[in-house]
Amino acid sequence: MAPIEKGDFKPTDHQTTTLIIIGVYILVILIFWNVKYLSTILWPFKIFTVGLHELSHALAGILTGAKIESIKVDADEGGCCTMRGGKQWVTLPAGYIGSSLFGALMIFCGFNEQASKYCSIVIGICMLLLLWYAKNWIVRIITVVFVGLGAFMWWFEDGKYLVYFVLFLGTMSCFYSLWDIIDDVVLHKINESDASKFAKIFCHGCMPAQVWGFFWFLYSLVFLILGIVAAILVFRDRDNNPDTMF
Q: Which of 28, 66, 96, 128 might form a disulfide with 85, Cβ 3.0–4.6 angstroms?
């Protein structure tokens, strides 16, 4: 493997365009998020991201021996993953960290059309897994809609526009996760966040929830940056040589 040189971090024209699109997505999300009627347009995407958050709890639970009983997402964007067993010190932070990791993966794949197709398969599998554990109609409907939308984007124009769909989902997931941490932990919008629960069980409350929330915020931010940097490094050769396979 060739060593990474300073010039390798310079994005290609295509990657620069992708970075601009990400910036536009961020601006649109921020505007729509804070305008009452426009925020309704983002609601399905928020529910999708909350679903990824709860699914991340579930996957961490499965990996630590828990039995997943149900996953629920409310219309007000609240979520709950009910499980028996598992390791709480693993499952509690998994929601924020897992959803931001999913987001970073989608942003990474959003730099390349072929990679976005592979990513859409992963998203589809995750959505079907979420559908399996879903216990309320909101999760079921949103899951079916996003699976169907992903399949349509793959089929339409040979998946030409799928990359923009995956990129938006990734941007939404990353920034929703970052904002959710601030909302829950710093602004105290909910009575008991994952961070406050984690603070009680880990080292017997030696550090407050705000500190753990700040750590998770940094993890989420690092995932986002790594996703972009990795995409620039991995896909630059393909941009320069279209015949190169991913």
A: 66
Which amino acid is present at 242?
P
Q: Tell me the domain boundaries of the chain.
A: 11-237
Query: pLDDT 10s digit of each residue in the chain, 246 long?
Result: 445 565 567 888 999 999 999 999 989 988 887 787 888 888 888 888 888 889 999 999 999 999 999 888 887 777 888 999 889 889 988 988 888 899 999 999 999 999 999 999 998 888 888 888 877 788 888 888 888 888 898 888 888 889 999 999 999 888 777 776 676 666 665 556 777 788 888 777 678 877 887 888 888 888 889 999 999 999 886 655 544 444
Residues in the chain: 246
How far is the C-alpha of 167 from the C-alpha of 187, rounded, in Å? 28
Q: H or E stretch including 45?
A: helix 39-63
Q: Count the neighbouring beta carbons within 10 Å of the beta carbon of residue 151.
A: 13
Other Cβ atoms less than 10 A from the Cβ of 78: the count is 11
Q: How far, CA to CA in Å, does 60 sit from each of 83, 117, 168, 177, 212?
A: 11, 25, 25, 17, 18
Q: How many other CB atoms sit within 10 Å of the CB of residue 219? A: 17
Check: CB of residue 116 under 8 Å from CB of residue 162: yes
